[in-house]
């Protein structure tokens, strides 16, 4: 039995996710970021997280060169940040949107949580690469609501 790709994508869309911008700045690249909703925790000890990158992403080569990345969990008032870095060929971080974190990685300002990570492992995931990162620095806001994505559109907790 073969799955219809559109039906599968729609089924996956029923799972509400947070929205993140993954940022990095490997040698030879200006700080950049891309919007994703494919983030998950992996382990508490060691502190590991993962996200998935399409093999045909215009950011693929830059993330391949990166020794680290930051997972920035966006707040509900950061819709403009999400939209900006979701655009094809528009991934250079805008000055004012980010700061340089303790690890030297770019961190999105005012994110709910930012996890600066060293690349722990990369895995083949079909049409994606799964990047696992070891969290080495963490910053969080004590309050705020997350920006969510569900059924192909943004959502908020009420």
Automatic annotation (TrEMBL):
Molecular functions (GO terms): FMN binding; riboflavin reductase (NADPH) activity
Coiled coil: none
SMART domains referenced in this protein's UniProt entry, alphabetically: Flavin_Reduct
Domain of life: Bacteria
Transmembrane domains' residue ranges: none
Stored InterPro entries: Flavin_Rdtase-like_dom, NADH-dep_flavin_reductase, Split_barrel_FMN-bd
Domain named Flavin reductase like: residues: 12-156
Oxidoreductase in keyword set: yes
Keywords: Oxidoreductase
Family designation: Belongs to the non-flavoprotein flavin reductase family.
Name of this protein: Flavin reductase
Organism per entry: Spongiibacter pelagi
Lineage: Bacteria, Pseudomonadati, Pseudomonadota, Gammaproteobacteria, Cellvibrionales
């Amino acid at each position: 039995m073969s799955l219809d790709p559109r039906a599968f994508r729609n089924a996956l869309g029923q799972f509400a996710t947070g929205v993140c911008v993954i940022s990095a700045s490997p040698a030879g690249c200006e700080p950049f970021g891309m919007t994703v909703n494919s983030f998950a925790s992996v382990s508490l000890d060691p502190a590991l997280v993962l996200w998935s990158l399409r093999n045909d992403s215009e950011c693929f080569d830059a993330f391949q060169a990166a020794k680290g990345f930051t997972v920035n969990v966006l707040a509900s008032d950061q819709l403009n940040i999400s939209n900006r870095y979701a655009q094809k060929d528009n991934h250079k971080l805008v000055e004012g949107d980010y700061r340089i974190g303790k690890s030297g990685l770019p961190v999105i300002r005012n994110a709910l949580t930012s996890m600066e990570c060293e690349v722990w492992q990369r895995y083949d995931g079909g049409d994606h690469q799964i990047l696992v990162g070891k969290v080495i620095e963490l910053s969080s806001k004590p309050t705020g609501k997350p920006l969510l994505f569900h059924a192909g559109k943004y959502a908020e907790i009420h």
